[in-house]
Structure formats: structure tokens, C-alpha cells
Amino acid sequence: MHANQSKTSSHRDRGFTLIELMVAVVIAGILASIAIPSYQAYVRRGQLAEAFATLSDMRVKMEQWYQDNKFYGAAVNSTACPTLPSYTVFPISGKYFRMECDGLGAAPAQTFTVRAVGTAGLTSGYTYTLNQSGVKGTTSFAGASSTAACWLTKAGSCDN
């Protein structure tokens, strides 16, 4: 019997049972189902920074244009957006967003709105706006329409 017992225990030491392997796969699946969406949300928030930085920069350049010309349009009787330093013609394509001059007020334009529309993977379905008064807006968040008067970075959380 002693010989038989050592043969059985050496047989068990050679690997994992099917149950042990299935438990390990289930645990890995649960961890992945939690980690992957969290990681994607983290990456997306980093990509949203392109929209926020570019919109803020465009607002500064629109204000510089206004200081020089006393209107936001390309010309005194125009409702077309001007060509800004570092920005050629609208729309402007970034890595994750397309920047648009959403609208100017009636000529001579005293108001403007610039918009960033998500174009790539994780930013598709996200649209942000900024106007001459510095009012931020989110019109589309994760593919759903929004009326938030701020730049949403995650559901219910504004970037101020």
C-alpha cells in the first residue's frame, strides 16, 4: 500500500485539475471585466484634454482678434470665422477632435461659439463648446445628448 500511495500523490503533483483551471479563468475574467472599462475611461479622460486645451486656446485667439478688430468675424460685415494664428481654416482636425467655429452673431459679430467634436475611437460621441463669455458646454456625452453647462469628463462630473 505504501508504494501505491506514493504513486497517487506523485500523480497529483504533476499539474492542475480542470476545476482549479476553471476557477483561475473565472477570476481572471472578473478582474478583466472590471479593469478594462476603468482603463478605457482613464485613457478617454486623457484624450478629452485635447478638446479642452484647444477650445481654451481658440477662445484666447478669438479675443485677441476682437481686440484688434472690434468684431469676431473675418471682416466687419462677415459672419464667417476669422483665420486665427496657428489655426488655418475651420474645421481643424486634431488627433481626437475636430474643432469647428460653431457660429458667430449677426455682423458685425459680437459673439462666437467654438465646438470640439470627438472623431476617434474613445472620443466619438463627445461634443464640447465654449463661447465668448467663457461659458463651457457639453452637448453630447458618451453618445447621449447633454445640456450640461460645463465640460463633463465622466458621468456627472465637470471639469472646471
Supply the key terms:
2 helices, 160 residues, elongated, two-stranded antiparallel ribbon, six-stranded antiparallel β-sheet, alpha+beta
Description of the molecule:
The protein has 160 residues and is of the alpha+beta class. It has a domain at 49-153. 39% of the residues lie in helices and 25% in strands. It has two helices and eight strands, in the order H-H-E-E-E-E-E-E-E-E. The protein has helices at 2-12, 18-69; strands spanning 92-93, 97-104, 112-118, 127-131, 136-141, 144-148, 151-154, 157-159. Strands 1-2-3-4-5-6 form a six-stranded antiparallel beta sheet, covered by helices on one side. The chain has a two-stranded antiparallel sheet with strand order 7-8. The protein is elongated, with a radius of gyration of 27 Å.
Helix and strand layout, with pairings?
Elements lengths: L1 H11 L5 H52 L22 E2 L3 E8 L7 E7 L8 E5 L4 E6 L2 E5 L2 E4 L2 E3 L1
Antiparallel strand pairs: 1-2, 2-3, 3-4, 4-5, 5-6, 7-8
Helix content: 25-40%
Radius of gyration: 27 Å
- Major sheet size, sense and barrel closure: 6 strands, antiparallel
Please indicate the percent range of residues in DSSP E strands (runs of 2 or more): 25-35%
Write down the secondary-structure element order.
HHEEEEEEEE
Separation of termini? 76 Å
Please count the beta strands (DSSP E, at least 2 residues each): 8
Uncertain stretches: none
Strand order of the largest sheet: 1-2-3-4-5-6
Query: Can you give the mean pLDDT?
Result: 87
Structural class: alpha+beta
Question: Given the structure, what is the number of helices?
Answer: 2
Q: What would the principal axes of the Cα set say about the shape?
A: elongated
